[in-house]
Design goal:
Helix content: under 10%
Oligomer: single chain
CATH topology of the largest domain: Pectate Lyase C-like
Order of helices and strands: EEEEEEEEEE
Number of domains: 2
CATH architecture of the largest domain: 3 Solenoid
Shape: elongated
Number of strands: 10
Radius of gyration: 17 Å
Length: 190
């Protein structure tokens, strides 16, 4: 496939197949209603781009550059974001279904997750300091060795975070969510 820089373009469902989609650098582009499920987006670069109503489930993102990229109303099941190019990695998610995603060892300081399903997501050894988790579902998500300092979980739910193996200094939790910090003790809270 040809490589190059593509700027200020809008891509719709006609580009659902990578057969007519050139590998390269995409800057200030919008991808709307594209189906990239199981696509190999390895070595692509996206700068200041938006993905709206796209399906990227099980997409391969090895060495993919995501620099100031927003995902809105997208399906990202099983995406391994830890395979991405880490240089200037900057992502945000709103109304996304992200079950079984991996953020293993990523530095996501200050990232915003709003109204996302993150069931069984893996945040092991990640830096999630100052991250805003607004109304997110963390059922069976993994937090181990994770830096959650000053992260905001006040409107999120179903998380189970062990304070003895994660850094949670000044993290924000709602009173109703405090039980998620005590799960390992198997106590009954009424």
């Amino acid at each position: 496939m040809a490589t190059g820089v593509i700027q200020n373009e809008i891509f719709g469902k006609d580009y659902s197949s990578l057969n007519n989609f050139n590998k390269g650098e995409y800057e200030s582009c919008t991808f709307k209603n594209c189906d990239f499920s199981q696509a190999d987006l390895s070595n692509f670069t996206f700068i200041d781009c938006r993905f709206e109503l796209c399906n990227l489930s099980m997409a391969k993102v090895r060495n993919t550059g995501l620099k100031s990229v927003r995902f809105i109303n997208c399906k990202l099941l099983g995406v391994n974001f830890s395979d991405c190019n880490l240089f200037l990695l900057s992502i945000a998610f709103e109304n996304c279904l992200m079950n079984l995603t991996s953020f293993y060892k990523l530095k996501l300081k200050g990232t915003r997750f709003k109204n996302c399903g993150l069931q069984e997501a893996d945040f092991t050894d990640s830096d999630l300091s100052l991250v805003s988790f607004d109304n997110c579902n963390f059922e069976r998500a993994i937090f181990e060795g994770t830096n959650l300092e000053k992260a905001d979980f006040r409107t999120s739910f179903h998380y189970s975070i062990d304070p003895s193996v994660n850094r949670i200094k000044k993290a924000k939790f709602s009173q109703s969510g405090l039980a998620g910090l005590l799960d390992k003790y198997d106590i009954v809270i009424e």
